[in-house]
Write a structure and sequence with these properties.
With 147 residues, the chain is mostly helical. It has helices at residues 2-13, 24-27, 29-41, 46-67, 114-117, 124-136, 140-146, and strands at residues 73-77, 85-86, 89-90, 105-109. It has a domain at 1-41. The protein is built from seven helices and four strands.
């Protein structure tokens, strides 16, 4: 019983092997100077990061105010209750817009937001995630198609 516990702690320490290349920083003088200057600059970036987070928060609050719950609206068939699909995606509608196919579809609420309920502005935390996703340009095109 004691041997298995010791084996798990050693295997946990093996994860630090990834840090081994960092030892070469001390051997290469130019790399050491660069790393020291980056470390010295980090505290000076504190104010910039605070301003950036403030702007993220402003845009997230604006998104929550404008789009809360809107991404659940879909064009739904009156007869079958199935959503309308165009190009493999469900058609998202606003409360005051009409769906294509006059009299066949209406704008109704579904239970999930797009991207498996991840892309939404229903609360500030999800809105911050969507703003960060748009800023980093990772998956932003799927979000922009929704609007």
């Amino acid at each position: 019983m004691g041997g298995s516990e010791g084996g798990s702690s050693i295997s946990g320490l093996r994860a630090f092997r990834v840090l081994r290349p960092l030892r070469s920083i001390n051997k290469i003088e130019g790399l050491k100077v660069i790393m020291m200057s980056v470390m010295a600059a980090l505290p000076l970036l504190k104010d910039t990061i605070i301003v950036l987070l403030f702007f993220f928060l402003i845009f997230a609050i604006g998104g929550v105010n404008m789009f809360m719950g809107m991404l659940m609206n879909r064009c739904v068939s009156i007869e079958t209750g199935q959503p309308l699909f165009e190009d493999g995606e469900e058609v998202i509608c606003a409360d005051n817009t009409t769906c294509p196919g006059e009299g066949e579809y209406f704008c109704g609420k579904r239970t999930m937001n797009p991207n498996f309920d991840v892309t939404n502005f229903d609360n500030i935390f999800w809105a911050l995630l969507v703003v960060f996703q748009c800023i980093t340009l990772e998956g932003w095109s799927e979000i922009m198609v929704l609007y």
